[in-house]
Amino acid sequence: LSDRLSGALEKLTGKGALTEADISTALREVRVALLEADVSLPVARGFIKRVEEAAQGRHVVKSVTPGQQVVKIVHDELVKVLAGEDEEPGRLRIDNPPATIMMVGLQGSGKTTTTAKLAKRLKEREGKRVLMASLDTRRPAAMEQLAVLGTQIGVDTLPIQPGQTAVQIAKRAKTQANLGGYDVVMLDTAGRLSIDDELMAEVEAVRDETRPRETLLVVDGLTGQDAVSTAENFDGRIGITGCVLTRMDGDGRGGAALSMRAVTGKPIKFVGLGEKMDALEEFHPERVAGRILGMGDIVSLVEKAQEQIEAAEAERMMKRFQKGRFDMNDMKAQFDQMLKLGGMQGIMGMLPGMGKLSKQLDESGFDDRIIRRQIAIIQSMTKAERKNPDLMQASRKKRVAAGAGLEVQDVNKLIKMHRQMADMMKKMGKMGKKGLMRGALS
Length: 442
Ligand code: GDP
Ligand code: MG
Hints:
Bound molecules: guanosine-5'-diphosphate, magnesium ion
Number of domains: 3
Strand content: 5-15%
CATH topology of the largest domain: Rossmann fold
Number of strands: 8
CATH architecture of the largest domain: 3-Layer(aba) Sandwich
């Protein structure tokens, strides 16, 4: 979530059941976060109501704060809304060949690109014979564009015949599909920069002529609020069976997904993740939910913590970090926990902004075996040395190394790592006051 949200959540430190005050404080901020992610206002309101109901009276898990837990509830509700019911993402109703898939949407939303991506996917994954046809009669270049993509991906396109109307082309495509034994006909309709009557009338006529099995609305995932009115209009007039969100590789927050889903009740089937022909994926509700909340995988971290970290220990550590204290005992406790949580990589991978560090660790070959070795070194230290690593001069290093059955340079490495971790923990502790572990480590 936004920094503001994590800040607000940090204030909630109560124990026991989630109180109404806890929930409403958190939800006020969640609402702001949703709006910042371009979710439309009525949709955000409706969603918050759902979460309120889901959160009432839930018990606070010991090792996480109520704020974190509300985030988890928000996340779970988001996934529920985004996923809908009984829908398998990426499935299309295209039995009974030739089945028509009509692609609709505004100009520039990514219709033509998505048509080709989807054709490629159907061909490669489902072994379908696909025929694509461009109905964009106003822009000859658009027809050419689809033909070029067709050649590139090895999918047939209907030969271009100048002077035909969209309906005539659609009819010809159907005939051709019947004759040629195609499984799927994909119709790439024309778009406009904004919704107008002429566009809608044309798409309606094509729909009535071809009776598509799937009518997929292609929407630019970066458009946010506008996506809602686009979806309302197309669904109201044409009747869509699903959506494709494009440009989800960009840095939009993906709020459009929630709005579209809530407004039309229609599933999001695919997301576009780039300009390349392979950059199409079935829709993953969890990923988009995480993105709307903007918290990296903090939710799954909370989940793991719920399962595994003892509350008292976690709290004790956080307090120490906040005071800037981090000795060898703390380091050992961290190592022990790391082993529990699936190793260093597992943890680092979950924290936003930790990718770089995780990669460094990876390159240095830092794995569980090495974590165990570090623990052995710490165990060879005296109490005083653990409390005050600065005591570790040459003779002590030699003794500790011998005790752990390792070299002095291994001890040096551990000491260096301790220093780095102590710095990191100090930063984390500071952030713990301001917010969750967000951002500052990147
Ligand atoms: P149309 O007017 O709706 O047919 O839109 P096009 O398919 O011609 O796409 C317009 C532009 O958006 C092209 O430059 C595409 O390469 C680009 N585009 C389409 N889908 C995506 C996507 O998922 N990610 C990115 N980054 N670009 C996309
Ligand atoms: Mg186009």
